[in-house]
Amino acid sequence: MAALGALCVDEGVRTVVQAFTPSPAVRRLAADADAVITSASPGDQYSGTAGINFSEAAIEGLREGGTFIHTSGIWVYGNSDQITEESTFDASTIVAWHPEADARLLAAPGVRSTLIEPAIVYGYGKGIPNVVTAAEQTGDAPVLQLVGPGTQHWTTVHVDDLAELYVAVLERCEAGHRYVGASGVNPTVRELGEAASRRRGLEGRVAPETAAATTERLGAFGEALLLDQPASGQKAREVLGWKPSRPSLVEEIAAGHYDQP
Questions:
Q1: pLDDT bracket for residue 2 (50, 70, 90)
Q2: What percent of the chain has pLDDT over 90?
Q3: How far is CA 98 from CA 57, 127, 156, 171, in A?
Q4: What is the pTM of this model?
Q5: Residue 135: Cβ within 10 Å count
Q6: What's the 3-state SS for 183-208?
Q7: Backbone angles phi and psi of 260, in degrees to 5
Q8: Given this model, what pLDDT does residue 230 score?
Q9: Which residues contact 238 (CB under 8 A, 6 or more apart)?
Q10: Which residue in 10, 91, 124, 184 has the most C-beta neighbors within 10 A?
Q11: Residue 167: exposed, middle, or buried by beta-carbon count in 10 A (0-12, 13-18, 19+)?
């Protein structure tokens, strides 16, 4: 945390370490800001309650007409042939609280509220893709274990492209809109696994896993990873001029950015 603070100071940013609770400090900090972006979560069974309470405290603190950008996620849509902002909600268990909470925060009075629904975020060797790239090797002739059957598409976005989407929303978006933050590149889990397998000297060999085995191994997280979710992020391109341009996740894996230590 100290290192992060030092980095932010070098960039001209003032950092404040604050508990993820709806305290007076949250309201006070929001009152001093032109905009609030929420992107954190405890990542446990209290995520829903904590996220809503924190967001509502921030909204209460914002001055009239201030900007509030709330982060949701792509898993609220469940399986889909092509996810857009108009797709029907079918939230995975791990994010079941999001649709109702998102709608409430999006309609918050007195502020310019907007919602971003990021795809699976990757970049710099971090994030969910490590579930694939760090998977176990199985069999006498080693193969890389996939998450599920491998036929499911993961819609993806590089973290730097996603950051540019937040800036575009902050600068240009009108209140009440939601944006799917997807690059339009939707690899299958098999494609990701094969790229990781080649990096690990396994010549692209992979082994599928049953859905039941995945959920037994990874629980509700695994259930979400089984979703088939192609998306394009077209609305953000057309309305905000967003232009995701970073290398794809398959390219990042192939370049060694997700090699395991």
A1: very low
A2: 81
A3: 17, 20, 20, 25
A4: 0.92
A5: 22
A6: CCCCCEHHHHHHHHHHHCCCCCCEEC
A7: -90, 145
A8: 99
A9: none
A10: 91
A11: exposed
Alpha helices in 82-210 (DSSP H): 98-106, 130-133, 159-172, 189-199
Q: Which residues of 23-55 are buried (b: 16+ CB within 10 A; e: fewer)?
A: eeebbebbeebebbbbeebeeeeebbebbbebb
Q: What is the Cα–Cα distance from 200 to 18, expressed in whole angstroms?
A: 40
Q: In whole angstroms, give the CA distance from residue 255 to residue 119.
A: 21
What pLDDT score was predicted for residue 10?
57
Nearest residue to 157 (alpha-carbon basis) of 215, 219, 97, 229: 229
Listed residue (128, 90, 123) closest to 246, CA to CA: 123
CATH fold of 15-255 reads: Rossmann fold (3.40.50)
DSSP label at 82? Answer: S
Structure tokens belonging to residue 46: 């209290």
3-state secondary structure 7-72: HHHHCCCCCCCCCCCCCHHHHHHHHCCCEEEECCCCCCCCHHHHHHHHHHHHHHHCCCCCEEEEEC
pLDDT digits (tens, 9 = 90+) for 167-188: 999 999 889 999 999 999 999 9
- Say which range, 9-18, 52-61, 89-98, has the weakest mean pLDDT: 9-18
